[in-house]
Amino acid sequence: MLSKIILIVVLFAITLGIAAYLTLVERKVAAWLQDRIGPDRAGPWGILQPLADAGKMFFKEDFIPTNADKWLFILGPGIAMFTALLTGSVIPWGPDLELFGTKIPLQVADVNIGILFIMGIVSIGVYGIMIGGWASNNKYSLYGAIRASSQMISYELAMGISVITIVMMTGSLSIRDIVDQQHGFWQDGWFSWNVFKQPLAFLIFLVTALAECNRAPFDLPECESELIGGYHTEYGSMKLGFYLFAEYVNMFISSAVISALFFGGYNFPGMDAFSGNTLAILGTLVFFGKTFFFIFVFMWIRWTLPRFRYDQLMHLGWKKLIPISMINLLVTGVVIALTSGWFTKSPKSIETVPAAKKEVVREPKQLSMYNAKHEQ
Amino acid sequence: MLLATLFESGVDIKHYMILATALFVIGVFGVLYRKNAIILLMCIELMLNAVNLLLVAFSTYFGQADGQLFVFFIMVVAAAEATVGLSILVLVYRNLRTTDIRLFNKLKN
Amino acid sequence: MIFWLLGGLTIGTALMVVLSKHPVRSVLFLVLTFFMITANYVLMNAQFIAIVNIIVYAGAIMVLFLFVLMLLNLNKTNEPKGSILMTFGAVIAAGGLLTVLVAAIRDAVLAPTMIDANSENAGLVENLGELLFTKYVLPFEVSSILFIAAMVGAVLLAKRDKQTQE
Fold first, then answer.
1. Neighbours of chain A (3+ CB pairs under 8 A)
2. Do chains A and B touch (3 or more CB pairs under 8 A)?
3. How far is B55 from chain C (nearest CA, A)?
4. Which of A128-137, A264-273, A356-365, B40-49 has the highest mean pLDDT?
5. Which of A72, A314, C18, C45 is 20 to 30 A from C163 (CA-CA)?
6. Mapping DSSP to helix (H, G, I), strand (E, B) and coil, where does residue A306 land?
7. What 3-state DSSP class applies to A27?
8. Which of C5, C38, C98 is nearest to B22 (CA)?
9. Region for residue A264 given its phi and psi (left: phi exceeds 0; alpha: psi -120 to 50; beta: otherwise)
10. Confidence class for position C89, pLDDT limits 50, 70, 90
């Protein structure tokens, strides 16, 4: 019980600290991509810049517009931050740690329905934006909020379907089981990480995670705040700070989920040589390394690609990503059925879920043939 | 939480039946009292959820999963019905410019 | 103990749904009610139904309601007022229903509980999936047809007439 509380506090502190420094890293990466130096006044290499930004946000006047619904106005950023932080509780941050004779799993809650929990919390995150837009009592921020939320719910579907293919291959919804199935790097004649078994699902998940974070080429709600008015026009000081901060926390958690689902989480090649606490520490460091790599990829995409127009965005979500992910699901299902012998054996001699877990490694060869055909 | 301890720790199935009935009756009261068509549809969803709660309670009480599966189908039907109901409402709003259900009899003649 | 707290909160938020004057607050209270019902499901170890409740009801259907409400741009001053006679009628009808149902429940004789060692797993995804694809596969396939009908109906009904624009 005490270990859980300490774990929660440490996780909270790390998440907030990383999100704070991501604001600085974003500006530095943007500067590097644009061939200039980023902020470097607030300390050596701008290390104290996030503190300066936080101080600025605190000192600004915190007002509520007239005729705006006071409780809903305060609730909006609260929901955004709450859902962003809550997803971090089901991600396995490392293998079990062995301290003072007890095994401490580095995961706050290993629920049986881990992945669905994340999908559910992402669905709730839409409310933060909608309530913020509505409570501002401003026509333009309402339209911005409606566009943002319809973008988020459109891309949730494709995200869910691509997650289903991973779950079908693993046979369990718990994220810890999905990560444990990707043990090591080379297993039974093929790579064990899910990205090599399901490259299409990885691409779809990456694109939809970008859309869910309202980031990169899908940041129409954000850029609207520079043009007419987005859902955070009427917000100032710490409430705006919460919205922006929640976006960075979302980005961090999305990268963590991508690296846990597709890139093997805390597994790394050659991990069988270590054991016990060394393995736990190394695994956790490797996990954070993968997460930071994906954060860098998110930022790289943002400063390279131009934005989507709203109808292009909707067209991509509904007419392209959903059919592609469904075809992927169908092919995965057929391949799993063929390798478990559904069409040749009699029903009594087929085990349902355990067989799918064991014979998972056969498919990748056929999947890569499918992908080669698909590229033509 | 172990099921046995839930039903041994003083929570009887009758308590769940009364809770679900209370939710259902609140939904019925909402349907009769509110005049806004959207809130009406929402009270219908509340009634459906009360039934869901009762089904899950019974499926837990008897240790079988059939009740939970039926909840799944009820959710499917509720989603479909909410969608179609709201689109009809949007159409009526375009013609009448109001969502007050007492004015819906203007469709006559 | 938790049950009493949760039960009280559920009924409280449901009452606020019906009694709140502001439509947007009504919707948010309904979302809160769904969260309370999900907590009840978790209490009974019906994990899959709990999370599907959040994803489908609180995360999708309520967002749809909120969309329509915001696009119709309703606020408190437009809320239609009911006559006092209708209010009394509604209270009496609902109260009568509640009394009759609770009286019927109190006198009911129920079969004894049939919980054994396996029944704790009755809410997990694997068991639900097995049942769904063996015993209830026909309703499952028919519900997909229902969904297509609902989708086509909703899109068709909400389209603007092309003739008025030409």
1. C
2. no
3. 11
4. B40-49
5. A314
6. coil
7. helix
8. C98
9. left
10. confident
Residue A257 has what pLDDT?
93
Residues of C in contact with A111 (CB under 8 A): 47
Q: Which residue do the tokens 């980031």 mark?
A: A215
SS3 for A96?
Answer: coil
Tokens 């200039």 locate to A36
Residue A134 CA: distances (Å) to CA of A5, A128, A202, A244: 36, 10, 35, 18
Contact A207, A31 (CB under 8 A): no
CB contacts < 8 A, A to C, total 59
- The DSSP H or E segment spanning A137 is none
Per the CB < 8 A criterion, the answer to whether A58 and A237 are in contact is yes
Tokens representing B82 are: 């909410």
Partners of C55 on chain B (C-beta within 8 Å) are: none
Least confident among A239-243, B2-6, B71-75, C71-75: B2-6
Largest interatomic CA distance in chain B: 62
User: Across the interface, do C44 and B35 touch by the CB < 8 Å criterion?
Assistant: no
Q: Which CATH class is domain B3-107?
A: mainly alpha
Distance (Å) of CA A211 to CA A3, A137, C149:
36, 26, 29
Per-domain residue ranges of chain A: 60-330
Under an 8 A CB cutoff, do B14 and C106 touch?
yes
Would you kindly state where each structural domain of chain B is located, as residue ranges? 3-107
Sign of the dihedral defined by the CA atoms of residues A280, A8, A202, A358, in that order: positive
Please report, rounded to a whole number, the percentage of residues in chain A having pLDDT higher than 70: 88
Look at C74 and A90; give whichever has higher pLDDT: A90
Residues in chain C closer than 8 A to B4 (CB atoms): 115
**Cα separation of C81 and C23, whole Å?**
13
d(Cα B76, Cα B2) in Å, to the nearest integer?
29
Q: What is the pLDDT of residues A128-170, one digit of tens each?
A: 888 888 887 777 788 888 888 888 888 998 999 999 999 988 8
For residue C82, the model assigns a pLDDT of: 61
Q: Does C52 touch chain A (CB under 8 A)?
A: yes
pLDDT digits (tens, 9 = 90+) for C111-141: 766 666 566 667 778 888 888 888 888 999 9
Q: Residue A113 is which amino acid?
A: I
Check if CATH label 1.20.120.1200 holds for domain C1-75. Answer: yes
Å from A272 to nearest chain C CA? 31
A372 touches chain C (CB under 8 A): no
Q: How confident is the model at residue A100 (pLDDT cuts 50, 70, 90)?
A: confident
Answer left, alpha or beta for residue A276, where phi above 0 means left and psi between -120 and 50 means alpha: left
SS3 labels along chain C = CHHHHHHHHHHHHHHHHHHCCCHHHHHHHHHHHHHHHHHHHHHCCCHHHHHHHHHHHHHHHHHHHHHHHHHHCCCHHHCCCCCHHHHHHHHHHHHHHHHHHHHHHHCCCCCCCCCCHHHHHHHCHHHHHHHHHHCCHHHHHHHHHHHHHHHHHHHHHHCCCCHHHC
Residue for token pair 């109260």: C95
DSSP string, B42-90: HHHHHHHHHHHHHHHHHHHHHT-SHHHHHHHHHHHHHHHHHHHHHHHHH
What ipTM does this complex have? 0.88
Give the range among A117-131, A236-250, A262-276 with minimum mean pLDDT: A262-276
Torsion (CA) A17, A18, A19, A25 in degrees, nearest 10: 120
Residue type, A15: T
